[in-house]
Amino acid sequence: MTISKSGRGPVAAGRDKVLLRVGVAGTVLVALCCFTPILVILLVSVGLAGLTGYLDVVLLPALAGFIGLTAYALWRKKQTDACSRSTSRGSRSSPNE
Fold this sequence. Notes:
By secondary structure, this protein is mainly α. Helix content is 72%, strand content 0%. The protein has helices at residues 10-35, 38-45, 55-90. The longest helix is centred in the last third of the chain and has 36 residues, at 55-90.
């Protein structure tokens, strides 16, 4: 199979799945670190308790970024699905021909 000129095809669909998986996994991981004391306990146990004051500076923008990545991946997957459905309908010959 080849990729169409629009860049959509089997390869693009695979990339969309990977993008969605990374976005969801990152969102869950950062949310877990934001809303539970897991990361604080880990930093204290390794002797880096002084860094706990800067966690919000790093984790909240990372959470926003991963939520944005997930939203973009869902939008792109929707576009790819719609494009593949329209090309599969257009390739069928009509009964009037």
